[in-house]
Amino acid sequence: MNDRDDNHDPDTFIDDLADQLGLGDVMAALADTVAATPPPALRGRVLSSIAERPPVVAAPVTELFALRVAAMSALLDELTTSDWTRPAAPYEWSVHGLVAHLTAVEEYTVRQLGLAEQPPLPASGVASDHLALGASEVAEMLTHDPGSTVRRWRAAAHRVVDHVGGPDFDAAQPVPLHAWPFDAATALVARSFEMWTHADDIRRATGRTLEVPSAAELRTMSSTSVGGLPILLAVTGGPAVRPTRVVLTGPGGGTFDLGRDASATGPAEHLLVADVVDYCRLVARRIDPAELPGQRDGDDEFLDALLRAASAIAV
Amino acid sequence: MPAVADRWEESLVERIRAGDDSALAAVYDQFSAVVYGVAVQMVGTPHAADICQEVFLSLWNRPDRFDPARGSLRTFLVTIGRRRCIDHLRRHGRREATEERATRVWPTATPSVDEAAIALVAGQRVRDALALLPPPQRQAVELAYFGGLSFREVAVATGASEGTAKSRIRLGLQRLASELRTHEEVRLT
Question: A28 near B30, Cβ under 8 Å?
Fold first, then answer.
């Protein structure tokens, strides 16, 4: 008799013993000997009784944007003199050039929100070319020291943060960004994606660890992106959306049904499972659709089109 | 367990965590026969469905409790099921049920669907291993496992001392593990 046995609950003795001896697998194997078909109705009873998983509380878009500005600001404070000259892939710019580009986009955002003297630009012409926009400003900023560019970026970024956090901000206000006729809320999410992605570009260029946003931020970014997929499929010339379940795993993820009635039962025609951070990096074109880790079931051609649409906004 | 099965189970639990009810359906389809079968043996058919439902709802509500480093999903679900059954027996007068369960012959279930049938094939190997145990050890393990009897109840049912009952359960489990692990083809998940 083993003295350790004396400490067990009499009712759960065999379970505690198996746990203590590392024999949980034997306990499960024993269950095979009594496997029995459950009543057919039980499956439906189980599945109909589960409560919808409460989603992670999404960050308000204004908070998301402010947090991304704060993260970028903190990163820029860390950069050393040599960091500023490092190449910032996938672009031809240095880190300084990338921050100058971001500054030009931030100043453009100020204008599109109606905060500048010049009126907002339409979603066409030169404004539709994200990388060409502000090229002359970028070139000009690169003639100065990085500190000057950072001050200019902060001025523009903080102007946006102050405005969207203020009482006059209208989330439904049309804010065309490049070729996209966004409302203000969607524009802020798109800009947050961009800020996060460029911050990681800088981290990658300077040997720093990439950042994973909070669950609340990821929820806002991913749910906005997935919610826009039917429209993005249409505007990118893809097929019409088909019944698809998108499962984004990890903190901030969630389950989304596209192209299905709320009353639909049974499995969706297509299934896409991916880590929420990977999905967001795909949206930002930092992961190729063909290389997205995860699971997919259904028509590959359709799922490829869906993933291409997901990254259509990024450049 | 093969690594691919590990990944499959972890992926399903990740999807459950993300709120994907179709992943819970897949887990149910794979494991409900063993969970339900254990419940039938321990608490009887009238209550087994409720226990089975509780087990899968528990996974849905608390997926973080599954730790793949500690064992397979099958082991986790069977463990939860057994704990729920023991709680049920505690609440509903295990003493009254003890005599009936102590005289039951295990196993008795006859599954009829594919997953249950697959489990039954695997179960035959486990039954063969059980048959190799010395009868007192086999009886003690069967009473404790399938009957949900406490070691004190096993002692009463077999006319042994409590210490002897505990020793028989311990030795029986260890020998069973040894028998099963000498045959690589046996599913130990």
Answer: no
